[in-house]
Design goal:
alpha+beta; BirA Bifunctional Protein, domain 2; 8-stranded mixed β-sheet; 3-stranded antiparallel β-sheet; 12 helices; 22% strand; elongated; binds 3,4-dihydroxyphenylalanine
Length: 364
């Protein structure tokens, strides 16, 4: 047996006897590392005559390959053994109860959005979404708010310094209404959607924050009229406030994207400094409070989305989610919603494990 054959036999023997990954690594470094024995042999090739190299080269390279293969094979065995030992020693009893109460809670805004999605799903509405960074065509123009319209100035819009590739001004959406445009352009009627989400306006006091939440509703079908709108809003508000004595008053109003438009007031009474929704606003101890904007989708808006307004009609509405949350759960300062104060969150937050369902009582 040549020296090289003897060396190979010895190394392969040692490798297959290596007891653990560390021992194997030590053998690898000793043979194939920078100062390893095989590395040293490979270096001698450079100083040989062509004849010597022809004789010894294949032997030395063969040695390196055999040792490399033996190390890889041993490594697989040892890794498998390590895994088996781990699986045998580490056990988790999945039937044990969790040892800590869940940390954190669901923010009232998330809770209310879940409640609304549940209520509207029961009426056949899907949830649609759109981006918070919008272009001025979808946020304004397509909604029949042209450049010169005073409503643009009224919206206190946050604009971005740059335009998009089509030269449209970019902005933080000032309402969820652009989701109406996105939905009508993306899908065929009949359409029944709600679109909850964040909206932005440059405004800040106890009842206004620069970011707040709205939910948009849109129905497009044949033969839709204001009666459908009123029934939908009544049914939604009864389910949301969990009482049957919700009385609505539809007051003529103006929105560029609806014609006719109606502002919807709800009857309430003042109790211990809190507004309790319910009852007829014109009866003793009651009053009306403005709750949401709505109307029949303007034929121009329908046409802007490529639909024929003679065939398709619909209604839309928009309502503040934060406002709905305050009315139902009794908070009085909107700014606290976004302060991230843990005491406020612990007090007004909801259990992460109790998801709102109609069958279980929407806010139980
Ligand atoms: N986009 C309006 C706003 O933010 C709210 C609104 C009013 C939405 C009437 C509608 C609607 O869909 O029909 O003030």
């Amino acid at each position: 047996m040549s020296d090289i054959e003897a060396m190979q036999a010895r190394l392969v023997g040692e490798i297959s006897a290596a007891a653990d990954p560390d021992a194997l690594e030590a053998l690898r470094v000793a043979a194939l590392g920078k100062a390893g024995t095989i590395t040293a042999l490979l270096k001698t090739l450079g100083g040989m005559t062509p004849e010597e190299r022809q004789a010894q080269g294949p032997q030395i390279h063969g040695l390196r390959e055999a040792v490399t293969a033996a190390i890889a094979a041993r490594k697989d065995r040892l890794d498998a053994a390590v895994l088996e030992a781990k699986l045998a020693s580490e056990r988790l009893d999945m039937t044990l109860p969790a040892d800590a109460a869940p940390q954190g809670s669901i923010h009232p805004v998330s809770q209310v959005m879940d409640e609304l999605a549940e209520i509207f799903a029961d009426m056949g509405f899907a949830v649609a979404t759109g981006p918070e960074i919008e272009d001025d065509w979808r946020n304004f123009t397509a909604l029949n708010i042209p450049e010169t319209h005073p409503a643009r100035a009224m919206h206190d819009t946050f604009y971005f310094p740059d335009q998009d590739e089509e030269g449209r001004a970019m902005l933080l959406r000032t309402h969820t209404s652009p989701v109406q445009i996105r939905t009508m352009m993306a899908q065929e009627p009949p359409i029944r959607i709600i679109a909850p989400g964040r909206v932005y306006r440059s405004d800040s006091d106890a009842t206004h924050t620069p970011m707040f939440h709205q939910i948009e509703g849109l129905v497009i079908d044949r033969g839709i009229h204001m009666g459908h709108l009123k029934w939908t809003l009544e049914t939604f508000l009864k389910a949301y406030f969990e009482r049957d004595d919700i009385v609505l008053r539809l007051r003529p109003s103006y929105f560029p994207f609806t014609e006719p438009s109606a502002e919807v007031d709800v009857g309430y009474k003042q109790e211990k400094g809190r507004r309790i929704v319910g009852g007829h606003g014109d009866t003793e101890g009651h009053a009306w409070m403005e709750l949401l904007g709505s109307g029949m989708v303007n034929a121009r808006v329908i046409a802007n989305c490529g639909l024929d307004p003679n065939e398709w009609q619909g209604f839309a509405f928009g309502v503040g989610v934060d406002r709905l949350a305050m009315l139902k759960y009794g908070m009085d300062d909107l700014r606290a919603f976004f302060d991230g104060d843990l005491r406020w969150l612990a007090h007004y937050g909801f259990n992460a494990l109790s998801v709102p369902t109609l069958s279980g009582g929407i806010s139980a």
